[in-house]
Amino acid sequence: MAMKRQLRVGIVGTGKMAKIRAEVMSGIEDVTMIAVAHGSPEADRTMRLVAFARQHGISDLDKWSIGDLEDAGLDALVVCSTAETHCDIIEEAAKAGVPYIFCEKPFGVAIPEIDRALIALDAHDAKLQVGFNRRFDPHFLELHEKVRGAVRHLEIVSLDPAPPSLENLTQDRALISETMVHDFDTALWFLGDGVDCISVRESCKNQDLKRAELYQIDAAVALLGFEDGETCTIRNHWGSPTGYRQEIRICDSNYEVWVTNSSDNGTSWLVGVCRMQSAALHKGFQDRYAESYVLEILAFLRSVREGGEISSGTAEQARQVAVLVDCARESAYLHGKSFNPLVQNHVAA
C-alpha cells in the first residue's frame, strides 16, 4: 500500500483554539505541524511559542514566520491568532503561495480588510475555510439534512456561564462578534443568505464588563428577516447560572424540532414534537463541540489532500456573516434600529 504524502501544515497562534486544533492534528499520521511566528519577537510571545511547540511535538520552531512563508513549503496554514491579525495573515499566506488556509472566526474585523483578503485569495488561487464549527456538529448536520429547504422559523439560544476575560475582548460589543457570530452563520446555513432585515437589542448587568475599557454587553436579542419570509430569533447571554447551553428550535405548522446541547441517542424525527437533549449541561463550548472540531479539521485536510474545494465555511459565507455582525453592532448601538444588510452593504460588490 502506498504511503500517504506528509502534509506540512503551519499553525499560527498559541491560545485556546490553537491548542484545540494542534491536539487534533497531532493525532493525524500524515500531518507534520510547523509553528509559524507572527508579529514582533517579544520575549513573552517567544516563550509561549516554545512552550506550545514542545507540548504538541512541533519542530522547526524558530525557522518560519509570516514574512518568509514562500520558503516554508506549506501545504496549508491554520490561523488561530487574534481576530485583528486574521486578514493580514491570510493575505500574506496567499501571496506566499500557501494553497489552503484555515482561519478561526471571524474572517476579519472590518469589511474592507476582508475584501482585500478575498482579492488576494482569488489572485493567487488560494482557498480559505473559516472555523464555523457548528456546520460539522453531527446533531446539527443531521437536523440540517432532515429539514433542508423546509424551515420557516428558527430560534437559537446561546448561553455561556461567564464572559471571556477582559483582555480577550478586543472589540466593543464583543458578545456579537464572539458569540452571536456563530448564530448568524447557523441561521444562514439553515435559511439561506437572503437576510433583508436585522434588529438587535442589548443590555449589560455584569459589573466587570461595565468597567471594561471598550463598551461591552452581556446579553442581546436579534431578529432576522429573510427575503422569502423566513424569520430567525437569536438570544445570547454571558452569565448562565446553569452552565453552557446551546439550543436550536425549528418551528413549522406540522412539527417542532428542538435540539439542546447534544444527545447520545442521535437525532430522531417525529411529527409533532421532537426533542434531542442531554441530561446535563456542558461546562463550555470545548466540551459541547469537541467532536465538531475534529470533523471540521478532517474536512479541511481532506480538501488539502484532494486538491478540492472547501466543503463548508467558505470565504464567501464568512463574509456574509461579517456583514450581519456589522449591521448587528450598528443596530444595537442605535437601540434596535432595523437595517437591511442587502442595502447597508458598504460591503457588497
Task: Provide a descriptive summary of the structure in words.
The structure is a single chain. The chain is an alpha/beta fold and 349 residues long. It folds into two domains: 7-131, NAD(P)-binding Rossmann-like Domain (Rossmann fold), CATH 3.40.50.720; 135-283 and 322-333, 2-Layer Sandwich (Dihydrodipicolinate Reductase, domain 2), CATH 3.30.360. Helix content is 34%, strand content 22%. Strands 7-8-9-6-10-11-12 form a seven-stranded mixed beta sheet. Helix 1 (16-26) links the parallel strand 1 (7-12) and strand 2 (31-35). The longest helix has 19 residues, at 315-333. The radius of gyration is 20 Å and the shape is globular. The termini are far apart.
Summarize this, please?
This protein has 349 residues and is α/β, with parallel strands linked by helices. The chain has helices at 16-26, 43-55, 86-95, 111-123, 138-147, 174-191, 207-210, 285-288, 290-306, 315-333, and strands at residues 7-12, 31-35, 76-79, 100-104, 127-131, 153-160, 195-203, 219-226, 231-238, 245-251, 255-260, 272-277. It contains 10 helices and 12 strands.
- H and E string: EHEHEHEHEHEHEHEEEEEHHH
Helix content: 25-40%
* CATH architecture term of the largest domain: 2-Layer Sandwich
- SS strand fraction: 15-25%
Query: If helices are DSSP runs of H or I spanning 4 or more residues, what is the number of helices?
Result: 10
Taking pLDDT < 50 over at least 5 consecutive residues as the criterion, the unreliable ranges are 263-273
Using the alpha-carbon principal axes, give the shape.
Answer: globular
Q: Would you state the CATH class of the largest domain?
A: Alpha Beta
